Here is the input.
Amino acid sequence: MISERALRWRRHDPFLVKAHFACARDTFDAIGNPGGYVNFGTAENQMLFDRVAPLLRRHTEIREPDAHYNELHGARAFREAIARFLSRRAGRTLSPDGITVATGASGILEMLSFALCDPGDAILAPAPYYSGFDHDLGLRAGTALWPVSLASPGFTLSVDAIAHATDEARTRGLGVRALLINSPQNPLGQVYGTSLLREIFAYAAREHIHVIADEIYAESLLPGVTHATALADENAEVSVVYGFAKDFGLSGFKVGIHYSDNSDLVKVMQDTAYFHAVSMQTQRTLTGLLEDPELPAFLDTMRARLSGRYVATADALSESGIPHLRVEGGIVMWLDLRHFLTAPSFECERALYEAIFSSCRVSISPGQAFHCPEPGWFRLCFTMPQAAHSEGLRRLTDRFSGCR
Amino acid sequence: MISERALRWRRHDPFLVKAHFACARDTFDAIGNPGGYVNFGTAENQMLFDRVAPLLRRHTEIREPDAHYNELHGARAFREAIARFLSRRAGRTLSPDGITVATGASGILEMLSFALCDPGDAILAPAPYYSGFDHDLGLRAGTALWPVSLASPGFTLSVDAIAHATDEARTRGLGVRALLINSPQNPLGQVYGTSLLREIFAYAAREHIHVIADEIYAESLLPGVTHATALADENAEVSVVYGFAKDFGLSGFKVGIHYSDNSDLVKVMQDTAYFHAVSMQTQRTLTGLLEDPELPAFLDTMRARLSGRYVATADALSESGIPHLRVEGGIVMWLDLRHFLTAPSFECERALYEAIFSSCRVSISPGQAFHCPEPGWFRLCFTMPQAAHSEGLRRLTDRFSGCR
Here is the structure.
């Protein structure tokens, strides 16, 4: 009774999802379950609830208009609050008419894949990249991601690398419809600067490629880092993806945002948002959050905690001889475990992952889950609750100290 | 930059949506806007908020687990509460494993269209039917609805009519993958009985057709009416669609439910729910609502008000010489305005609609928006707030009294 297309995309659970639920069934708790798993694998900021909860609790009233139909791409008041919030970041006034609200950044990405690509078209993505992208853009919408492979140890993005990947994909007969960039970058922790962004837009315009700028970690910046947001450029052919999962620690609320100045694309996004509409109850609460006078203080606290935790984690890893890239933004670190592999292969990387998972009962994510072109790199999310973070770090550093 | 497929489904706004927002911009209010539109066109029960709100307000706590990732096809606790609630209706124990939660019944229907049909396949639907079905199943998933045309004045569904439509569709080369039934039926107000349901399942099994039973109005029953739910039959190849929009008056919460005993289908639905996940905040609140000891009293009040309003409306229409079908369930009535048409054509039906809209400033929905095979029938939602309902009914009966 299942359609041919559904049989094609009946998926194996994505790696990160499987690891997440394996940890969730037997989670470390200092008192209740001291031998449980520490999950450094799921990218969530779990250091925010005590500060975000009071801002949410002020805005939980149940009002009659919220019980009834509203615009399904987001209520006007919510889109206005989002537009004001994003305008401050953009440095220009964004219209609420360019905004589409839908169920999570994953929903937004799937909608974009339908809107921009036909089945068999490709979207370029600098690799390593967040592996959920394959799922979000490909599962049902049928678009393939084509990696722009970046070289270790810096994994620096350049327009040359993008152009090379475009040529490769076109040689294989694929239509290259979009380039998906992500800044702050997951898993690398890089933040793109203005000049790189400008070069990317110029290249994309020449090649008629739409740029999808996933800026889901836009507020999660380390001290002194300036994020060049794609929202700033009113002439670029770009979609900006944002949401509440990361900077606000509200993954469970499943609220994603799309902004573009391309009104044809916005129309398609707002039409399909019909199937991905967000509960008015949650729209009401998040409107209140965005307009709460304490929002700036919340974001400052978020960044202060992020920075403190990052420095402590980086120091502990360095002291134990675990190299890692410098983080400019986001909540994950990219660890260089190449010299702990028994051989430089993805099989050995997987074996190391399994060994850490079973003997340390710690989940960190292997680079192969991110299409990393070279084996031996791992992603660690450093924003777990304090007790779990300390315990996991102790287990990891103990293990790797023993290796040397 | 837009894909071919998106260009194909860039839609005109569906008729009912357009009429809804036309009314929303200039809505009747007894004090503030006595000349505004009365919207009998949107199918919402607006007689419930005072009773449902207290049950929601008891369950609005913001808790830490709800901020984080959970199962994206619905949290376990929510699916358990739904399973208990639906089990009472089914008369058998339903497993939470068979349940998928997603953004509204529209989201569920779109997911089903992807899961059951390939582009160009057809789903049968007894007509007149809710016109949103064309949009939900067709817009992005590309499935066509094939009407099972029913004859006035009773519009009685039979397996013969279904078989006739199946043959017609197959003669045109369409694969008939599913039959979409709706009981209580919108717009007719019929409730299907056990024997009809049994005959439908037997026919569908013989023809390898999946039955989609949209039971979104399942609790909205008039006195003495028994609803034969498709949940009751554990051997049927059936999907049951439910949600909180109608029986609870919570369209703005956008929560739809799918239940099936077909585990292959459930797997596909739960996979794609990833893109249609409901905010944990709203899942928490609705879990509380379903488990609240006052829920049965709320449903009794809902039915008592529904019945009182229906009787008053039916009496007023009858006294003014406006014929209408007897309602067994749901919140809409099917009016027979055939003898008010200047000629028996859909153009004249449309002209009558426009005249009522502009001169009475009342929106009722013409049968052509429901694929009604005969012109002159209109749908009226009778569960508007009291003041608007009285005003709209006065305007309508005044107009038609003047016609005779």
About this structure: The two ends of chain A are 56 Å apart (CA to CA). Chain A touches chain B through 72 residues (CB under 8 Å). Chain A has 14 helices and twelve strands.
